[in-house]
Design a protein that fits this description.
alpha+beta; five-stranded antiparallel sheet; 5 strands; globular
């Protein structure tokens, strides 16, 4: 991150308290993520030292951090393809929005079985 984004606002590599929220992301409207979580902002943890510099042509952003990093992507041409840069599995035991991501994944996987 420092080599590509020298002016980012905060560390995206949370070294402690990974089960706590570190920063917020804007959830873009009319995306699978917004349909799942039902809000335009999420507070997330942040445990990464790399980020997306350029999106592949098939991907679309669905979450952006306060300092402009793409934190979530999806593929509109697939029934379920959603990736997030944070770790909802470390928040889901007390955060309903994080649990909703897992519930959506399980529903999508069950539909394909």
């Amino acid at each position: 991150l420092p080599s590509e984004y020298p002016a980012f606002l905060y560390s995206h590599n949370q070294t402690e308290h990974e089960f706590e929220r570190a920063h917020s992301v804007t959830v873009l409207p009319d995306t699978p993520l917004s349909a799942i979580v039902g809000t335009d902002h999420l507070n997330v943890n942040s445990l990464h030292h790399q980020a997306i510099l350029r999106l592949a042509p098939s991907l679309r952003p669905c979450a952006i951090s306060e300092d402009g990093l793409t934190e979530g992507v999806f593929r509109p041409d697939l029934p379920f393809f959603l990736a997030v840069q944070w770790h909802p599995e470390r928040l889901s035991h007390w955060d309903g929005k994080s649990q909703a991501l897992f519930d959506a994944f399980v529903r999508a996987a069950s539909a394909r079985a």
